[in-house]
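Q: Sequence in, structure out?
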Amino acid sequence: MSAAATTASPASTQLVTHTEIGAIDNTTGYRSFKAGSFTFARDEYFARITWPKGAHTMPVDAFLRALMRDVAWGFFYGTVNFDDVVGTVNHYGEVTLFAGRYNDAYHDAGRDHEERFPSDVLMPLFKAVLADWTNEGFDPFASPMETNAPWGSKNGNNEPAITRTRVSAKRMVGLPGDTPLRTDENGFPANRMFPDVDQSKPVIEAEPGFEGQVWAYNLFDYLSRSDVTWNPSVCSVLGESLFCPTTEEFSLPVDHGNDRCEWFITLSDEIDWEIKDKESAKPRATVLTRAGDVSCMPADIRHKGFAKKRAMLLVWENGSPKIPEMIARGEAPTVSVTW
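A: Exactly. Output:
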């Protein structure tokens, strides 16, 4: 349990620093949690979020899958909508927890609410929720056919699943001293969906003196061995240009509201995308991408993906911290190309 008075940020935005871990419920065995004036509680089937102006219920599996991404991604770029009501906005050092902020019905009725926290205050609480609410056998990073169900009263935990370290290469996966390749030997067998993926290794012939500086690896082999879904990891870095490949199966557990343009290259199979307005959640488009398709998600939308078969996706990010402010000032576009 922790408590502290609120303090003001340099921009005069009130920061809330009060979080609280509640007692164990005698009926379900789960704890409740508080972040500012938000409360989080779960029962056998549902996560229940309340705030001064309202309450919201989510199936607990959907809530845990969304919360897992928010924690693993460090609140990610822009807005992570757990669904059409609850989510977070990353201010890179601070984070807004909201309910109804990006939902016209809640917003117009005056039922929306938001509070801003230091990131290092909200993150430990979110991790505590994950640890307490994730039962033995349930993996919020896995596809539904690769994990047990989360239902019922408190039953153990699954710390290995919720404490995975997200891949974040300094230069490129496999380089000496960088994040290692995935192999059978280090616990990453090929996924059941990728039995036909070529696992051959590229031949590297570096000129004398450039050994260890010239590198290549089989990305399809690497992705075929991913043990998680909808979790873009940084696999190569060039300045602020980040290649973040991932494998997708079932549905993206969040609606990601961009604060910059994101490039998507579908590497295998196909993914359906549901595109909504970032502010109102009103539908804007549906897009079906197949292997080889390239698309760019604008900075003023939210998107959610669906994949009936595990698909490989390359997410290309510009990681510059200046972009959100440039877009807000009108100095950078919300789309990558204008015709």
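Residues 257 and 302 are 4 Å apart (CA to CA).
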